[in-house]
Queue: 4 jobs
Job 1
Amino acid sequence: MLRSLVFGLMLIPLTLVSAANAHGPTRQKVTETVEINAPAAKVWEVIGNFQDLNWHPAVEKTEGEGGNEPDKAKRTLTLKGGGQIHEALVKYNAKAHMMKYEITDVDVKVLPVKNYSSILKVEDEGDGKSKVTWRGAFYRGYMNNNPPPELSDEAAVKAVTGVYRGGLDELKKKLEAAG
Amino acid sequence: MLPLRPAVDGSSAVHNQGMRRSWRRLASLFAMQLSVAQTHRVVVLIATVFVLSLGPGASPLTAGGADAKTGRHEAVVTSQLAEKVSIVDLSTSKVTAEISVPGKPAGVALSPDRKIAYVTAPEAKDIAVIDIDARKILKRIPVGDGPLGIAVNPVRGAIYVADWYDHRVAIIDPKSLTVTGFVKVGLSPSGLAVTPDGKLLLSADRDSHQVSIIDTADLAVKQVVEVGKRPFGVTVNAAGTRAYTANVKSDDVSVIDIQNGKTVATVKVGRRPYAVALAGNNAFVTDQYAETISVIDLTDLKVTKKIDVGAYPEGIAADASGDYVYVACWEENTLERINTRTLKVENQVEVPDGPRAFGDFLR
C-alpha cells in the first residue's frame, strides 16, 4: 500500500514533464543535404507533395488529407517494418520549393524524438543541378533528466540523421537514374 | 539556409533575405577551402560588406545605445549547441570573442556593474562566471540538477538560478560565489526577473502555469499568480509595476500587476512564444514556431505588428537606449537587430550554433 503510494507519487512529476514536452533537455538540430543532377523544379515534382513521402525508402505508405495547405494538411506515414508517424504541414511555398512540417504524434520506439519540426527545401544551383536540404529541430525522446541510452540526445540525432540520409541518398539515386 | 520569410515587411525585409542568401552561398563556397575559424571571419566580413552595400536608410552599420556604466555596447550570447558564449560588438556588428563553455549554455544575466556575465550550463549542472572584458571564465559554481533561467538583483547583486528539475530557485552570493540558499517554487521554474528596486524576484513556474513573487529580503514566496499555459520568459517593466510572461503552450502573453499579484490581461501572440523585451511603449515577443516578433502596444495591449525574423527566435532584450532590440535566432544562428522605431530588422550577425541568449544579455 505504502509502496504503491510512493511509486504513484514518483510517477506524478514524470507524467507532468512528459506532458510538458519542452525545454528541460537541450533542443537538437540536424541538417543533411544532397546535390542532385536535376533542376530544382524536377526534384520538387517528386518531393513537393506533402501527401506523398513514398519516395523515402523507409516509408510503406502515406495517407492524409488537406493537400498542401498549411495548418490544414495532415499525413500519417506507415513505415516498412511497422510503426506510424503523424505529421502536420505548417508552411508551404511551392515557388521557393520549401515546406515545413511537424510531428504531431509518434511513439518514441519508432522515432526517439519529441517536439520535432522539419524543413525540406530544394535550391536550384544552375547547370541543371540542385541542392536538397532537410533540416530538423527536436528534443530527445526522454524529457526528464538522465535519459536511458536509447532515448538520449545522441540517439535522437542519430535516428533523424539516418532518416534524412536514407531519404536524400535514395532520392538522388532515383532522379539521376531517371534523368 | 532559411531566409524564406514572406516579404510582408517591406523592402528592407527583401534586402535582408537577399543579403542572407547571397552571403550564405558565398560562405559555402569559401568553406571548402578555409578552416572553420577563417570561414567565420569571411562570413562576418561578407555580411558587413552586404550591409554597407544596401544603400541609404537600409542598414546603418553602427547603432547607438552604449551601456552607461561600461561605455560598451555588447551582447553576451549563449550558443547552446556550439557550447560557446560569444561577445558581439553591437557598434560594429562583429563577433569579437568566443568563450568555450562546456555544458550547453542557455541562460545569461549580467552583474549590476555590467562587467560579469553569469551563464547557466544545464548539462554541466553549474553556472559559469565570466569576466566579460577579460573574456574568460572566473569560476564555475555547481547548482542543482537543471539550472536554466538566471537573474541578478540589480541592487544587492545576488544571483538567482531557476532549477528546472529541482523546482526551486538557488541564491548565489556575488562575493563568495557560493550557493547560500534556495526558495521552493512551482514546477520547472524557467525565466526569472527582478524588480528594479531589487525587492521582488519573479519566477515563471512553467509546469505550474504560474508566476511566484518572492521577497528578496526574507526569500519568502509572497504571492502566486496564475498566468497562461506554460510560462517561460518573464520580464519586469522599468517602473517595477508590471510583468509580462511568454506562455509557450497557450501562445499568449500574460500581463501581471505586480503590486496586486494578479493577471490583468492576456494578449494572443504567434506560436510558441519564448521571451519578452520591453522598449518604449511596446513589448517585443519572440514567437519560436511562427518565426516572428509580435509587437504589443502596451497601452492598448494589442499586437500591432509581426516582424519576420530568423527561424526559432528565442532570447530577446532591449539595449540601454531603447532604440534597438536584439534577438537570438536559435535555428538561424543569428543575432538580429530590430529598430524599435521603424519595427524592422536592420541586420543579422552570424553567431555560433544554437544561440539562445535567454535572459539579460546586453550591455
Note: The mean pLDDT of chain B is 87.
Job 2
Amino acid sequence: MRLLIATMILLLGFASPGLAQSWDDVVARAKGQTVFWNAWGGDERINAYIAWAGEQVRDRYGVSVEHVRLSDTSDAVARVVAEKAAGRTEGGSVDLIWINGENFASMKRNKLLFGPWTEQAPNYRFVDTVNKKTTTVDFTVPVDNLEAPWGMAQVVFMHDTAHVASPPKSIPGLLEWAKANPGRFAYPQPPNFHGTTFLKQALIELAPDAGVLLAPAANVSDVTAPLWTYLDELHPVLWRRGEVFPQNGPAVTRLLDDGEVSIALSFQPAEASGLIASGKLPDTVRTFVLENGTIGNTNFVAIPFNAKAREGAMVLADFLMSPEAQAHKQDPKVWGSFTVLDVNALPVAAKAAFDALDLGVATLSPGELGATQLEPHPTWVAALEAEWAKRYASGK
Amino acid sequence: MGEGPRSSLLCWAPRLTLLLLLGPVAAGLVGTVLPAFGYLPALGGLTFNLDPWRTLFDAPGLQESVRLSFVTGLGVTFVSFAIVVLFVAGWHGTHGFARLQRFLSPLLSVPHVTVAFGLAFLLAPSGWIFRLTSPWLTGYDRPPDLIIVQDPDGWAFIAGLAVKEIPFLFLMMLAAIGQVDAARARTMARTMGYGATTAWLKAVFPLVYRQIRLPVFAVLAFAASVVDVAIVLAPSTPPPLAVQLLRWFNDPELAMRFVASAGAVLQLGVVLAVFAVWWLGERLVACVGRIWIRRGSRGRQDGALRYGAAGALTLSFLAAFLGLASMALWSITGRWRFPDALPAQLSVDPWVNNASRLGEASLNTATVGLVAALVGLVLALACLENESRHGRPATGRVLILLYLPLLIPQIAFLFGGQVLLVMSNLDGAWIAVVWAHLLFVSPYVFLSLADPYRSWDERYARAARCLGASPLRVFCQIKLPMLLRPILVAAAVGFAVSVGLYLPTLFAGAGRVDTLTTEAVALASGADRRAIGVYALAQMTLPFLAFLLAAAIPAWLYRDRRGLRVTA
C-alpha cells in the first residue's frame, strides 16, 4: 500500500517537470515570506487553530502567516478574479485560500490556481486517498493536486436532549418533528455554506433519483420540485416562521445554546463535544445522523496562480497535512475536525497521538456516523441558491 | 517680509483639502458609473450597454431592498430629528437638559455597530430584557419565538440607527443653538404667553434649522445606505440595498460587478429620492409652520409633548447604555444561559483567546485613526487659518463640498475607488486606508473646530502683531495654545469617526488592514457574543481614551494658568 503511494508520488513527480524545484528549495524560498491566508473567520476556535498553525510554521520555517478573516470564501475568490482581470499576474494579495466545492470548481475552471503541487509536499503521502475519496474528488470535480486536503467534514445534527427525546431519522422525519415542535428548528440562510448544505442534504433524500445530482445540473425544475414542496411545508414551522434566517452555522449553534432552537446542523462531527467543553453549549447536547447517511466532503487549501508568497503557502499547507497538525485539529478541545490522513498507516508515534484523543461525549463513533453521501455537482449549488432566493428571500 | 509666499501657500489650503477629499470621491463615482453601463475594460466590458440594469431589475427582492433603504433613510431621520427637536424645545435651559447633555459624548464616541450589537442582544427574545424578566414575569423558561430583531419591516433596524443618530443630532443642535440668540428669542416668546415648547418651536426653530440642515442630510444619506448596522439589525430576506450590493460585489461571478455598480448608482438615486422627499417635507413644514405661527396659538398645554420627548430620549440613551453594558458583561462571561439574569460563571477566557488578534486590530485602529485625525486636523487648521487671515468665512457652497463625502452613499464611490486602488497597486496599503478614512474624518474635524476657531478673539492676534510678531508666530505661540482644547477635541472626534468606519476600511484595506470594527463585524457573522463583547469593549475604549486625553492634556499643561484652565 505504501509502496503504491510511493510509486504514485514518483510518477506524479515525473509527470510535472514544470515544477522542478525540490522541496528543500521550496522551504528555503519560503523563509521570510508572509502568507496571507484567506479563511472564513467566523468561528473563534477555528481562528485559534489557524493562529496556532501560523505560530508553528513561523517558529519552524520562518514563514509568517496572516489570517485574512473572510465572512465568505467567495470574497477571496472574487479578489483573485479581480486581480486577474486587472492584469496582476504576480504579487497577488491572496496566498492561500481555505476552499472547496463550487469555489474550487470555479477557480479551477478559470485557471486561477497554481499547481499541480500537492504531490510535492512531503506530508501529502500520509493522506488517505483510497478510503477517503473526497480527498481527490471535490464535489465531483477532480482535485488534480491543485488543492491540499486538510480536514474531513460530514453533516451531523446537534440536538438538545433536554428538549428532543428521540431525534428524527430522515428529512421527512425532520418535517414531522418540526410540525410537532414549531419554531424550534432553523437552518442558515443560503447562500451561506451551511444553509446550502441543508438544501443539498434535503434534495439528496427527496429527489426521485439522487444519482443525477452527481452530473452537471440538468432538468433542474423537475429534480428540485420535491425540495420546494418540502420547504414550503417546513418554513411555516421553522424558527421565526422562516421570515428571519440565521446568518451561518455558528449563529444556529448559539440559538441552540440559547434554547431558541432544539436541533441545529453542523458540518463537524465533533463540534458539539468541543463546544460543550468550552462552555458554549449545554452538556445535554448530543449528535445524530440520518439513517440514509449524510453528506460528507473534504476541506482544502489552494494557492492562487498569482500568489506572492507561493512557497510559504506550500510550506504552510504541508504543515497543515502533517500528522501533528492533524491530530491537534482533531482534538475536540481545539477544533474537532476529522483528519484526512490514513491514521493506521502512520508511524507509531504519530498514530499514538490520534489514539490518545478523547473525542468527547457528544461525538459519534465512525461506525455510528454511518455512510457518507457524495456532494452534488457544484452546478446544482447555483441553481438551488438562485431558486431559493427567488422563493424565500425576495420579500412578501 | 517673508510672509508673502507663506500665506500664498496657505491660500492653497482649501483647494488642496477639497482636492484630497473630493478627488477620490469624484474618481470613485466615475469608476462606479462606467461599469454600471457596461464599461470596464479590465473585466472585458468594452462597450456601453444597459445589460447590468436589466439584470439588476430582474434580481429577486430588489424592490423590497430599495423600499427598505428608502423607508429607513426617512424613518430614522424623522424619528431622531423629531425627538431631538421636541426635547430641546421643551427642556432647553433646564437642569435635566444639562444632565442629559453629559451622556452625549460617550454615546457619540461609540461606533454605530457597537451600539447595534448591544441593542441586538438587549432586545432579542433570548436577550437581556427577556432574561431579566423570565420566567418570574413572562412565564418563559425558553425564549419565545418572536420576531423582534431583523424583523422583515425593519423596525429594529430603524430603532437601532435612531438610538445612535439622536445623540449626533442633539450635539449638532447644541452647536447651532450657540450660534443664534436662542435664549433671548425664547424668553421673549415666553413673556408673550407662549408655552415652553411652542415658544421654542415658533421663535427659535426657524433660526436653528438652517444651521443643522447639512447634518440632517448626512443622517438621511447614512441611514439609507449603511451596511454594518444593517448586517446586525436589518432583515435579510431580502436585506437593504447596500448590503445586497456588497454581496454582489463580492460574487466570484465577475459579471455581477457590473450589476453591483448599477445597483450602486441606484443606491445613489435612492439617497437622492430620500433627499427630495425630505426637501418637500421642509417646504410643507415651512408653509404650515408659517400659518401656525401667524395664528398665534400659545400652546400652553405642552406637557404631554414635553414628557413624551424626554421619555423617548431617555429611553434611547438607556437602551444604548444597557446594550453596551451587556456587551461588556459578555466579554467576561464563561457561561450565561437563558433565563439567567446574569452570567452563571465569569471568565477571562474571551480576552485571553482574542488577545493577539485584538492587539493587532487595536494597533491598526489606533494608528490609522491617529494619522487620519492628525492629517484632517492639519487640513482643517490650514483652511481655518487661511480664512481668518483673509477674513472670508466659508460659504454655504464650500461647506456642502466639504460635506459631500457624507452626503453621497459610501458604497457608490467606494466600488469605483477600489478599482482605482487595484489599478494603482495601492489596495491593501495602509496609506490607502488612511486616505479613505480621511474623507470621512475631515468633515467632522472641520465642523467641530470651525466654531471655536472662528469665535476666537482676533484682538489677541492684533496685539501680538503690534508687538512685532509674525503671523506664524502668532499662530504658533498664541492661537494654538489658546485653542488647544477645541483642537484636541476635534482630533478626538476625528479619531472616533475613524474607529467606527467599516466600508471604507474594507474596501481600501482589501482585507489586509483589519481594524476593531472590521473584526467585530466579521465576528458578528460567527455570533459568539463573548468575542463580540471583547471587540465591542475595545471599540468603546479607544475613542474614550482619545476624549480623555483631549481633556487631560490641556488640563495638565495649563494647571498653573488660571486664564486657560478648563472651567466647564
Note: Residues 44-61 of chain A form the longest helix (18 residues).
Job 3
Amino acid sequence: MFETILSKFVYVLTSSINNGMPVLFGATGEILTEKSGHLNLGIPGVMAVGGISGVIAAFFYGQVPDMNPVLTILIPMLACLLGSLVMGLIYCFLTVTLRANQNVTGLALTTFGIGIGNFFGASIIKITHVDIPSVRIDATSKLFKATLPFASKLGWFGEIFLSYRFLVYLGLIIAFIASFILFRTRLGLHLRAVGENPATADAAGINVNKYKYFATCIGSMIAGLGGFFYCIDKNGWSNDTIEPLGWIAIALVIFAIWKPHMAVVGAILFGLLLNLYDLIPALGLNIKFPQGYDKLFKMIPYIVTIVVLIITSARKKREYQPPSHLGLSYFREDR
Amino acid sequence: MEHIPALELKNITKKFGSIVANNNVSLSAEKGEILAILGENGSGKTTLMNMISGIYFPDSGQIFINGKEVVISSPKDAFDNGVGMIHQHFKLVDVLTAAENIVLGLDGRFNLKSAVKEVASIAGKYGFDIDPLKKIYEMSVSEKQTVEIIKVLYRNADILILDEPTAVLTPQETDKLFDVLRRMKDEGKTIIIITHKLHEVLSLSDRVAVLRKGEYICTIKTSEANESVLTEAMVGKKISLNIERAEPKDPVDRLIVQDLLCLNREGTPVLQDVSFTARSGEILGIAGIAGSGQRELLEAIAGLQHISSGEITYIDPKTDKHENLRDKTPVQIRQLGVRLSFVPEDRLGMGLVGNMDIVDNMMLRSYGKGKSVFLKRKEPRDLANEIISSLEVVTPSASTPVRRLSGGNVQKVLVGREIASTPTVLMAAYPVRGLDINSSYMIYNLLNQQKSNGVAVIFVGEDLDVLVELCDRIMIIGSGRIAGIVDGRTSTKEQIGLLMTKNVKTHTEKGTEDVSQ
Amino acid sequence: MTGNNTNKVKDPLLHIIKRGSIVWWKSALIRVVAILIALVVVALITLVITGQNPIEMYKAMIDGAIGNELRIWNLLQDTALLLVVGLALTLSFKMRFWNIGGQGQIIMGAIAATACMKFLPGKVPDFALYLIMIASALIAGAIWALVPGLFKAFLNTNETLFTLMMNYIALNFAAFLTFRWSKNSGNNVIGILNRKTHAGWFPDIGGEGFVGRSFLLNILIVFVMMLIVFVYLKYSKHGYEISVVGESEKTARYIGINVKKVIIRTVIISGAICGLAGLILVSGVHHTLTTDIEGGRGFTAIIVSWMAHFNPLYMALTSFLIVFLEKGAIQVASSPALNLDDNFANIVTGIIILFIIGCEFFINYKIVFRKRKGGAS
C-alpha cells in the first residue's frame, strides 16, 4: 500500500519537475529581465527562437555521420543561446538604447519570434532542399534525454533526485544561482537598484544601461534554453505550442514574487497543474471527467496566477511588489 | 606657488531647449570652506551643481578639480573625482536597507557586514543616529538625509554638495546638520550648500556665490555680507517689496474650521485641533515649515482629504446659509453652490494637465456643466484667450500644451482659471514658487483684486517677507497644529519665525520613537 | 585625486537630448525612411532565405494584397477587423490602462455569438436572435475586461499582467467549447453554423454580382465605430475624463472626477468593442468558432494603436499598413515557386514593426555631437 502511494507520488513529482522545466527557464530569465526594470513580453518569441535555433543546429549536425556526443550536445546548445541572445539584443536595443515602449516592443518581438519558429520549423527542409520528410532530431534528443544509469537502482531516492536529464539540473542550478546573485552579491544589489529606481542607481555611479543590457540578454538566453528544452521533449519543433509556455513563464514570475528560488517551487506546481488532467489517474483519484475537460484544466495555472496577483496587490507589502520602475524607460535628463 | 582651488568652474553654459539654465557661469570653492550658492528658485543653482555631480552634462565650459580639468559625464566620474551630491529629492532605493543604499554603486569585494560596521563608525565620528539595517521606506525624512550624507562620506568625497538640505528639516534637525557640516569643514572638506534662505547663508557659510536667472552675479565673503546686500545681489536691485495692502472691507465670516483632525495612511495625525475662520475681503496667510500640514489643510477644505473629526462650515454670502463641507467630494461641494477655488502647489501634476492645451485646461472645472454628453469648447477657448491677453501669458497659441510653457506662464494659466469662476473662497498654495519677480507681483495683485471683490483668500506662502506685507492675518502652522494667528500689519518676521518652530518638540519626539522601533 | 594625471580630457562623443516638439513633415519623413530601410532589410533576408529577387518579391506582395477585387475586399475587411480591436484598446490606453487582454475579450465575444447562433435559431424570432447575439457578445467582452478593471480600480492590481492571464483562460475555454460543440465529437471542428438558414449571419449587401457583398457590412460597421470612437474621445465629456485620468489621477481627483467610475466605465466599453470584434468574426466572417479565430489581433492592435499615437483616424492607416504587409507576405510565401509557410508574414511584419518602433526614438530625441573646442584635439 505504502509502496504504491510512494511510487505514484514519485511519478507525479518527477513528471511535474520535467514538465515545469521549460517554464522555469523562461521565468528565471524573465525575472532577471524584470529586475532590471524591463517587462519583456517578447519571452514567448525568445523561447521560440531559442528552441528553433537549437533544433536547426541539431538537425544539421544530425546529418553528419559519426556524431560526436560532446558536439551533439554543444552545438545545439550554443545555437540556442546565440539565437535567443540576438532576440535579447534586439529587445534591448529598442527599449534601452532607443527607449521604445516595452509592451509594444515585447509583443512585436513575440510575433516575430513565433513567426521565425513556425516558419523555419515548417520550411527548413524546403529551404535547404534536404531529402528528409520532417524535422526530427531523435538522435540528438536521445542524448539530451540521457539520465544516470544507476538512478533507477537507488529506489525512490534515485527516482526523485537522480533520474533527470542534465538540462533539468542545469535549470535548477541556474535558478538558484540567479537567486544567489540577485540577493547575495553586489551585482544583484546593483541590478535590483536599477529596476527599482534607475535615477538613484545612476547617481550612485552604476551604469544603468549596461546592467539592463546584461540582465535582459542573459535573461533571454536562459529563457531560450527553456524553448530548446521543450523541443527536445517533443523531438523537434511543434507549431504554436511554445507561445502558451512563454505566457505561463511570465505568469510564474508573478507567482514567484520575482524570486528565482520561489520560481523553482512554482515551476513544479505549474508543471503539475499544466498536466493535472493527465495525472489524475496517477494521483490515484478515480474521477472520470467527460471528454474535453482537459482544456478546462489548462486554465488553472492562469487562474492561480491571477489569485496570486490579486493577493499581493491587496497586501501591499513592499517586498512582494513588482520592481517599481518595471515597464518604464529611463532617460537621465528626463526630469 | 599659485593658489589652486578645490573646485573651479569656468564658463559653464547649459540649455534645455530654448531655455538657458546656466549662462557662462564661473566660480570656485576652496578646500576647508563652506560655500553657499544663493539664488531664487529657478536661478539655475541646482542645474549648475547637477553638472558637477554628473547628472547633466554642460553644453560648454570646463570643470577643474584641484587645478586639473576633468570631464564629469556620469555620477561615477563625479565620485571618482571626489565629488558627492546630496540631492533635494533623495536618491535612495526604497526597498533596500540603509547599508545597501550606502554601498550601492561601489566596486570591490562585496561584504555587507563590514559595510555595516563602517557605516556605524562614520555615524559615530560625526554624531549621526542611524540603523544601517533599516529599510528606507520605513525611515523619516531626516533619517533618509542622514543616509544620503553617510553615503557620500563613505565614498571619501572631498567636495560635498547639498541641495536645499534644510527644506524638509525642523530647526533642531537643521542645527544638528549644520554642526555636522562644520565638523566636515574642519576635516578639510569642501562643502557647497544650495539655498535661498538668507539666515542659513549668514550663519553657516564662509563665502556666498550668487546666481540670478542662470547668470553668475558675484561671490561675497559672508563676514562682509548682510541680508540686504545678499538680497540685492539675488534679486538684482534692492527691493522693499511694497506690496499694496488695502484695509479689508466689512469682513464677514466665510469659512469656519473647527477642531479638524486628519490622519495619514499610517494613522498618525497630520492635522490636529485645527480651528480658524477665513473672512471675506481679507487675505489669510498660512506660514510654516514645508510639510507641516499646509497641503492637507487646503485639501481637506477642498474635499480631497478624509477628515477624521471636526467641522468645516461655509457661510453663503447671499443666503447666509451654513453649509457643512465635511466629507463632501469636490463635485458635491460645487453642487452646494460653494464657489471654492484652489490653486494647488503641484501645478502640472494636479492643477493642470501638462499634455493638454490651454483651452482644454480651462475646461477642467467647468466641463461637466450642462446635460449634453459633448464638450463645449467655445467658452473655454474665449476664456483662454482672455487670460492669455489679460495676464500676458507668453505662449504660441491657446492650443499649446501647457507643459511647454515656462513656470510663470503655467501659473498664470492656473490662477487665471481659478479666478475666472468668480470664487467666494480662493485658496492658493505657494502660488509664486519658482516665478520671476514680475510674475510674482502679478499674482500678488490678482490676490489683492480678489480680496477687494470680497473673496476670502487663503494664501500659503514660504517667504515671510511676502506674508507680512501681503496678508491681513497670518496663521502659523507647525506639525499639523495651529501655533498662532497674528495680525499681518503689526507682527514681524522674527515673531512668526519663532511661532513656526513652537510645535517642533512633539515632532522630534515622534522622530525618536521611530528610530527606537 | 592624484590617479587622474595621465588621463587626457575626453568629451563624450554624442549626447542625447529630448526634443520639445517636431514639425510634422520631419516626423513623417523619419517614419517613411524607417519603413524604407525595413523594406530593404526584408528584401535582403528574403534573398538569403529564399534566393528570390527582392523586386519580384515586392511585386508579388503587392499582387497578394491588391491583385484582384476579392483580394482588395479581403484586405479592407482584415484592416477593419484589426482596426476595430485597435479602437477598443485605444480607449483603455488613453486612460493608461494597459489592456493587453484584447485576445481574451474578442474570444469571449466570439463564444457568446457562436452560442447564440448554435442554440437560439428556431427558438426565438430572427430579429430577437440578432438582438440577443449582439448584446451577449458585447456583454461577454465587457465582462472579460471588467474583471481586471475592477481589481485595478479598487486594489490597483497590475492590469498588464492580469489582462494577459485572462487571454489564456478565454483561449482554453474556447478550446473546450470547440471540442464540446464539435459535430463529430472529438475532432475540435464546429463547422459552419446554419449554413442553410444563415440564421445569425450578417446579411450580404448588394447582389450576386457584387464581389464585396459579404464584406461590406463588416467594413461599414467598423467605419462607423471608428467615427464614434474618434468623436467619443475628442468631443465627449467621457472622452475628456478618460484623458484627464490617463494624464494625471491627481488632477482627476482635484477636479472631482470619480476615478474608479471612469476606469470601470471605460474598460467596459473597451471590452465591449472587443466583444463586437468577436461578433463580427463569427457572424460576419467565419460563421463558426475556432480556437485561432482571434488571429493575434489582440496583440497586433496594441501596436496599431500605439503607432497611431492613439488617434482613431490614423489607426485606419496603421492597420492598413500592417494588414497589407501580412497579406502580401503570405502571398509571397505560399506562391507555388516557394511554397513556404504562412508564418513568413509574421517575420516580415515583425521586422517592419520593429523598425517603426525604433524610429520613434528619432522623433522624440535628438542626437547632438559635442563640438570640440577649437577643433584641436
Note: Residues 9-148+156-320 of chain A form a domain with the ABC transporter involved in vitamin B12 uptake, BtuC fold (CATH 1.10.3470).
Job 4
Amino acid sequence: MRDALGVGVAVGLSGFAFGVTSAGGGLTLTQTCALSLLVFTGASQFALVGALAAGGGAFTAAAGAFFLGVRNAFYGLRLSQLLALPRAVRPFAAQWVIDETAAVALAQPTRRSARIGFVVTGLSLYLLWNLTTLLGALGAEAIGDTDAWGLDAAGPAVFLALLAPMLRTGTERAVAGLAVLLGLGLLPVLPAGVPVLLAALAAPAVLWADGRRRGEGAER
Amino acid sequence: MNVWIAIGVTVLGCYAVKLAGLLVPAGALERPVVKRLAALLPVALLAALTAQQTFADGQTLVLDARAAGLGAAAVALVLRAPFLLVVAAAVVVTAGVRAIGAG
C-alpha cells in the first residue's frame, strides 16, 4: 500500500515535465491535457509531442508513440492472469495498464494485494499525472520562453531515465547503440519522425544477429 | 488539425494495445521471440529519441547546451538519483550553460 502511493506520487509529478514540454512544443492547453487524460502512457506522450514539435507528420508521430505503447500489451497479459478481472471491468482497467501499475501489482504476494496495488497506483497516478500536466502547461505559458529555462532538455532526460534500467545486457546496449546511430544518421536525409521508426528496426536486427551467433555456437 | 489527428490516432492506438493485453488469451503472445522483441523495441525507440531530442535542431545535428544537460542526467542516473532529480539535473544544467552563453 505504501509502495503504491510512493510510486504514484513520484511519477505523477513528472507529469509537470510533460505539461511544460508539450506547451513548449507548441501544443495548446486543451491538446496537452487531452493527451494525458486519454493516452496516459508517459513515454508515448513525450514521443508524440517531440515528433510534432520537430515538424513530423501526424501519422509518423503517432506511429512512434504507438510502438512505444506496445509494451503495455505485455503488462496486460501478465496482469490479466494475476488480477483475474471480470470481463466487464477490463475496458476500464485497461487505461491504467502502464509501467508503474504493472511493477507494483506484479510485486505483490497475493491476488488481493495485487488488486489493491493496481487500483491505488492507477488512481493516484492518473489524478496526479493529469493535475501536474495541467500545472506544467499553465506554468510554461506563464514563463514564456521555455528554452531559456532549459526545459527542452526535460524530454530527452525522461527518455534516458526510462532507458537506463533497461540496459542490462550487451544485447540491450547493442540495440540502443545501433538505434542512436540510425536515429542521428538518418535525421538529415529523411522526413521528421521517420528516422525514429527506422531506428526501431535495431531491435529485430540485433535479435536476428544474436540468434545467428547462437546458432553458429551450437554447431561448433 | 494536424495535431488533433495525431492525438486521435495515438489515443486509439495506445488504448487498443493496453486492452489487447487484458483480452487476448494467455499464451497467444507468450512465444519467446515475441517477448524478446517487445522488450527490445522500447530500448531502440527510447535510445533514438534521446539522441534526437538532444542533438537535433530541425533536420540538422547540433551540439548545444542540451548535451551538457543530458550529461548531467546521465551522471545522476549513475549515482542512482530518483527520477525527478535526473530530469531536474538536465533542466538546471541546460539553463545554466545557456545563461553563461556557451550554448
Note: Chain B touches chain A through 71 residues (CB under 8 Å).
